[in-house]
Predict the 3D structure of the following.
Amino acid sequence: MDFQEHANQHHHIREALVAALHERRPVDPAAMRSDRSCPTGCWIHGEGARRWAGNHAFLGLLEAHRAFHQQAGLIADQIHRGQWAEAQRSLRQGSPFAMAFSDLSAALRRMRATAETLAA
């Protein structure tokens, strides 16, 4: 698994929310909230769970990924309801979404290090 690519994919999710906000176009809150439909979620709930269940780094990734998508779903809800100012605040540095994004990035790095260590 390319953990850096998975981090990039979540950066693209953030950028999609920013673009939707600036273009004033709705995004699907259910799709953003789902932690099972993106490639990382498919891996976590599939191959990752089969191989890494019970591993501390994996469990941290599972929780960080879920939290990221919950926050993305909340912002998508705000955009969908036309709450532009609230959505903009929710995307700012220091917001729960920004913290969840940072936590997810760190969890992906820890998982990569764990996978590399155990593969050696």
Remarks:
- Residues 56-80 form the longest helix (25 residues).
- Helices lie at 3-23, 29-33, 39-52, 56-80, 84-91, 96-119.
- DSSP finds six helices and no strands in the chain.
- The two ends are 15 Å apart (CA to CA).
